[in-house]
Amino acid sequence: MGSFLEEFGAKELWQAHDRIWNHALSYIRSMCLKCARELGIEDIIHSHGKPITLSQVETALRIPPARSACFRQLIRLLVHLEYFSQISDVGGRRGWGWGWGGAGAVVGDDGHGDRRGLSTA
Question: What are phi and psi of 95, to 5 degrees?
Fold first, then answer.
């Protein structure tokens, strides 16, 4: 019996690696969502009433400058996971909006204006 690569091929090897990494790191998705809920990011964006810049969200949350890069990484992942959507119409600057369609709508609002936490979602 040969190696995995000889027996199955490169495509299967990459698929196996992908599956293992996805499984091993899947907790990051839920932890990022939990962090966003605990910080109240969607409440700030929702209460703003229109697209808001990332700097405005950082100011409202009082994110220290030393943590700004980490906060921006969190937001990028949440955009990738489609909880937030990126909007490029905030006074000519790039802004952020809560992703009311798809996953953001389910987590952020029950459809009747009730802002629910993860424990009741």
Answer: -130, 180
